[in-house]
Design brief:
The structure holds 2 protein chains of 2 kinds. Chain A is an alpha/beta fold. In chain A, 37% of the residues lie in helices and 17% in strands. In chain A, the strands form 2 sheets. Chain A has a 6-stranded mixed sheet with strand order 1-2-10-7-8-9. In chain A, α1 packs across α2 and α1 packs across α5 (149-165). The radius of gyration of chain A is 19 Å and the shape is globular. Chain A starts with 15 loop residues before the first strand and ends in a 5-residue tail after the last helix. Chain B has a single domain (2-85), classed as Ubiquitin-like (UB roll) (Roll). Chain B is built from 2 helices and 5 strands; from the N terminus they run ββααβββ. Chain B has helices spanning 27-37, 42-45; strands at residues 2-5, 19-22, 56-60, 63-64, 81-85. A 5-stranded mixed sheet of chain B has the order 2-1-5-3-4, covered by helices on one side. In chain B, β3 (56-60) and β4 form a beta hairpin. The chains are: A alpha/beta, B alpha+beta.
Chain lengths: 310, 91
């Protein structure tokens, strides 16, 4: 190993760790890929680099360009780090109900934040960013929901890392946000072994964050092909938090709320298998959720459902 | 009767209720009974040829029925059925 020439070269090569104490079925192996070990603390560092370098390669960025992107936080923070190193100004459009730490980190990296209405969730951030894009020709949007560089980052980095350490993988589980992780890792794993199954965990949206005016405001990310996965499971905030606490208590792993959700699904699948190996991708560390007392408050507290925790 | 959770965006078609009951042994029968009881839901949930609207997801016990047997997925009174609009995830 030689030193990384910049922080960008320190992205990836995250730990893959077996969690036998947490695993409900001893006949099955359950491993987790700890994406919180990336430089800004989430899996999104991988795609941020690919997205910005894709714009650079395609000649989309000029001297007065300003990058703008919708995010619930992690992608914004990763883009802010990449943009700091590459010298591009960044504006993020983010729902107003994200945790304090996400806002703080964006501020530390010097990104400008525009808030979208909390009740419209990530759909609202996507719609607002796409509207803003049209208002100023200097804006350039990487667009993680539509840009093939997002799954490509996972196809070229996350997928091969899993295969190198765990070629016997049978099942892959990850959270569904843009779909980039599921699409990119899934495609790579299936090239390695066509019988690998890929499952998505998605958060049950709270009542307060479902403020769509009509179904036409619904949204399926352009990069997400529903036929490329084998199943999709809803998990509640309370279930996710309970699994997250158990993960910390049994394995010492400190992760974010979506990691709990992914492990609820991985545990259900493990319980139904007779043998085999499951890899679950835990998208971020727990740091950005400390202000919400996720580890101590009542997981059924309805106020938690009003927050954007994924 | 199986209880079906209705998302806020569709509640105007069910007199504002959060959960409604419907009968059926499969998801397809359940949805058709739901639409018979609340006709306003018809064009919201179903496409003109009777398929599930692209921006609607139906879950039985937390699992998206598109990955089960879609409209042929069996349901009983004990199952929890949830309808949700397609939403962008956190990212």
């Amino acid at each position: 190993m030689s030193p990384s020439s910049t922080l960008l070269d320190a992205i990836g090569q995250t730990p893959l760790v077996e969690i036998a104490r947490f695993n409900p079925n001893p006949a099955v192996r359950l491993l987790v890929k700890l994406e919180g070990a990336n430089p800004t603390g989430s899996v999104k560092d991988r795609i941020a680099r690919y997205l910005v370098e894709d714009l650079e390669r395609r000649g989309r960025l000029g001297a007065d360009s300003m990058i703008i992107e919708p995010t619930s936080g992690n992608t914004g923070i990763s883009l802010a780090m990449v943009c700091r190193l590459k010298g591009w100004p960044l504006t993020v459009v983010m729902p107003s109900n994200v945790t304090r730490e996400r806002r703080q980190m964006l501020g530390i990296y010097g990104a400008r934040i525009i808030e979208s209405p909390a009740e419209k969730g990530s759909n609202g951030a996507v719609a607002m960013a796409r509207e803003l894009l049209a208002t100023d020709p200097r804006y350039v949007m990487p667009d993680q929901y539509a840009n093939p560089s997002n799954p490509q980052a996972h196809y070229e980095t996350t997928g091969p890392e899993i295969i190198a350490e765990c070629p016997e993988i049978d099942v892959f589980v990850a959270g569904l946000g843009t779909g980039g992780t599921l699409m990119g890792v899934g495609r790579r794993l299936r090239e390695h072994n066509p019988s690998v199954r890929v499952y998505a965990a998605e958060p049950m949206p709270g009542e307060m964050v479902q403020g769509l005016r009509s179904l036409e405001e619904g949204f399926v990310p352009e990069i997400f092909d529903p036929s490329a996965i084998d199943g999709r499971f809803l998990v509640t905030t309370a279930e996710s938090i309970e699994a997250l606490r158990r993960l910390t208590a049994t394995e010492g792993i400190f992760a974010g709320v979506s990691a709990g959700g992914v492990l609820v699904v991985a545990s259900q699948i493990a319980s139904q298998m007779e043998s085999g190996t499951i890899v679950a991708l835990l998208a971020d560390g727990g740091w950005k959720y400390l202000s919400e007392d996720i580890w101590s408050r009542d997981p059924d507290d309805e106020a938690l459902e009003a927050l954007n925790l994924w | 009767m199986t209880s079906v959770r209705i998302p806020p965006v569709l509640r105007e078609h069910v007199d504002g209720q959060k959960e409604v009951g419907a009968m059926g042994e499969t998801v397809g029968e359940l949805i058709r009974d739901l639409v018979a009881r609340h006709p306003g839901l018809g064009e919201q949930l179903l496409t003109p040829d009777g398929g599930l609207h692209r921006f609607v997801n139906v879950y039985v016990n937390g699992q998206d029925v598109r990955y089960l047997q879609e409209f042929e997925t069996p349901v009983t009174e004990r199952d929890a059925v949830i309808i949700l609009p397609a939403m962008a995830g956190g990212a």
